[in-house]
Amino acid sequence: MEQRELGRTGHRSTLVTFGTAGLGRVEQDMADKAIEAVLEHGVNHIHIAPSYGEAMECLAPWMPQIRDQDDIDRALWWSLSQPSPYGPERR
């Protein structure tokens, strides 16, 4: 999959990104199918935010596998490490 440098980060990001907002609106088995497809196709830029409902909870079971991939966008880790502006109940 084609990649380009992401700004001045030095990270080579795939042109296709995975926005996870929809994960918060589906059952875990459907979320698993989507995440598996994204990873199988080599997407390395995953966007997630506290305002995406239950998306973080759906992505959580995949974190060990995702964490092992050196080329996954570090913006994911930054996003997950920031306090939620909506409070802990939305995290």
Describe, in plain words, how this protein is organized in 3D:
The chain is an alpha+beta fold and 91 residues long. The protein has one domain (18-83). It has helices at 28-40, 55-59, 63-67, 74-81; strands at 3-5, 12-14, 18-19, 46-47. Strands 1-2 form a two-stranded antiparallel sheet. Strands 3-4 form a two-stranded parallel sheet. A hairpin with a 6-residue loop joins strand 1 (3-5) and strand 2. The termini are far apart. The mean pLDDT is 78.
Properties at a glance:
91 residues; alpha+beta; two-stranded antiparallel sheet; two-stranded parallel sheet; 4 helices; 4 strands; 34% helix; globular
Determine the mean pLDDT: 78
Helices and strands, in order, run as EEEHEHHH
Report the C-alpha radius of gyration, rounded: 13 Å
- Structural class, please? alpha+beta
Give the N-to-C terminal Cα separation: 32 Å
- The strands making up the biggest β-sheet line up spatially as 1-2
Share of helical residues: 25-40%
Low-confidence stretches: none
Short note summarizing the structure:
By secondary structure, the chain is an alpha+beta fold. It has four helices and four strands. The protein has one domain.
